[in-house]
Write a structure and sequence with these properties.
alpha+beta; two-stranded antiparallel sheet; two-stranded antiparallel ribbon; 2 helices
Length: 75
């Protein structure tokens, strides 16, 4: 299974250079999560997290802001 994952961690760019795919995906997920927290804070809505085997609402204000992930540059 690990070999299958490793096979998909790099792709070729149009110029033939290797581009790490997995870090780009992780960065995109981090940006999406940060955006979700910000939106919930702005609208006063709770976040729903998985905790102790069930979904639990928590106040968005209780989540520490993280350093912004890098926005994709399109390269």
């Amino acid at each position: 299974m690990i070999n299958k994952i490793n096979q998909h961690t790099e792709t070729r760019s149009p110029k033939g250079q290797q581009t790490p795919t997995l870090p780009r995906i992780q960065n995109a997920l981090n940006l999406a999560a940060q955006d979700a927290v910000e939106l919930h804070r702005e609208h006063g809505l709770p976040l729903v997290v998985w905790q102790d085997g069930k979904t639990t609402p928590i106040a968005a204000a209780s989540v520490k802001p993280k350093t912004k992930a890098r926005k994709p540059t399109g390269k």
